[in-house]
Specification:
By secondary structure, the protein is an alpha/beta fold. It has a domain of about 160 residues. It has 14 helices and twelve strands. The strands form four sheets. It has a five-stranded parallel sheet with strand order 6-9-10-11-12, covered by helices on one side. A three-stranded parallel sheet has the order 1-2-5. A two-stranded antiparallel sheet has the order 3-4.
């Protein structure tokens, strides 16, 4: 059974010999180069990434999320590299009033649609899928399309975070124009994804999302999300649902309160967990059902917070077993880390995760 076959069967809730494993979420250039048998990662970064995960025995590739160059990477208090990128630009919109004024100025849906180059978008999506699958070989290529979802500003650098959230509370009518603009941009994008997928018989699954939460929960109240964001998200993904393209939603941190809303508007699965006792737990997520009546597809969820950075190899093995036990028997599991594995994770723990999964 090839990696592609194993992954497609598992994600369709068919019987497989073992849960498929995903590569792609690893930001350690030195480890990837070593695993691929290359002296230098940066001379052929993309080739090195695919070869490293092929040698690790992966069945699929998510992304891939590429490592950051040393000069772009932040360090923690002890001087160790992190998985976060340095940001030098300061936000341009720093008050709620500036955010509201900006919302007044954005184009309406008709102008968004007129400005969108649909033929080029079709060509670009087809080319991305073809190149990615060619690089992946016997692994299934699942591209990083998170930004295709309607925008929600968290760390983009244009909006000051507090200013945007305050504007949503103080000027919801004006800010709604901004959400409508973002929803239309996503809608026309998804129309081309659906068209290309049907015409070229591409993978009927897309990995999208936005960070709507932090470790404590949603950054706005669920009621505010239902007023401002979820209606335009439902509108945006309608072409995907009409084309029977399944949606795996990415959201870091604790999105437990938003799971029912995401399922109701048609999300078929989830990627990204920051598990705590009161947060989004894998075992609980595995029990929900989608609008199709099926269990959710889950990309995950070996902890990159609590286990991989500081646990032993045996801790990692137990964490892999927990994920398989929680989800694997019902199908729909693509075993992967809960988020990108940062450069702080010991190489022996990365090896242990894939070795035990195999």
């Amino acid at each position: 059974m090839t990696g592609i076959e194993r992954t497609l069967k598992a994600l369709s809730f068919e019987v497989v010999d073992r849960s498929p494993m995903a590569g792609g979420l690893l930001q350690n250039a030195e480890f990837l180069a070593h695993k691929a048998g290359r002296a230098d990662f940066w001379s052929a970064a993309r080739d090195t990434v695919f070869e490293a995960f092929r040698r690790l025995g992966c069945d699929a590739i998510l992304g891939p999320v590429m490592p950051k160059r040393p000069e772009e990477t932040t360090v923690d208090s002890s001087g160790k590299a992190t998985s976060f990128r340095q940001v030098s630009a300061r936000p341009q919109l720093t008050t709620p009033e500036q955010v509201a004024a900006y919302a007044d100025s954005v184009p309406g849906p008709e102008q968004v649609r007129e400005d969108f180059d649909a033929p080029q978008a079709v060509e670009d999506y087809a080319a991305m899928m073809a190149a990615g699958q060619a690089d992946a070989g016997d692994m299934l290529y699942i591209p990083h399309c998170l930004g295709y979802a309607p925008f929600f500003p968290t760390s983009d650098g244009h909006f000051a975070y507090e200013a945007f959230l305050m504007a949503c509370a103080l000027y919801p009518g004006r800010v709604s124009r901004l959400f409508v603009n973002w929803g239309e941009q996503a809608r026309v994008r998804f129309e081309t994804v659906a068209q290309t997928t049907l015409e070229q018989d591409l993978l009927r699954l897309i990995w999208i999302g936005q960070d709507l939460c932090d470790a404590k929960g949603p950054v706005m109240s669920p009621a505010a999300f239902r007023r401002l964001y979820f209606p335009i998200l439902e509108y945006a993904v309608e072409p995907l649902k009409q084309a029977d393209i399944r949606i795996v939603w990415h959201a870091d941190a604790n999105y437990r309160e938003l799971v029912p809303d995401l399922l109701a508007l048609g999300v078929d699965g989830f990627q990204g967990l920051y598990e705590t006792q009161d947060g989004t737990r894998l075992e609980d997520l595995a029990r929900v059902r989608t609008t199709r009546g099926a269990p959710p597809i889950i990309f995950g969820s070996v902890s990159t917070v609590w286990v991989l950075p500081s646990g032993t190899s045996e801790d990692v093995r137990r964490e892999v077993a927990r994920c398989v036990d929680a989800v694997g028997s019902q199908g729909g599991l693509l075993l992967a880390p809960s988020s990108s594995i940062g450069p702080e994770v010991p190489p022996e723990n990365i090896e242990a995760m894939y070795e035990y999964a195999r």
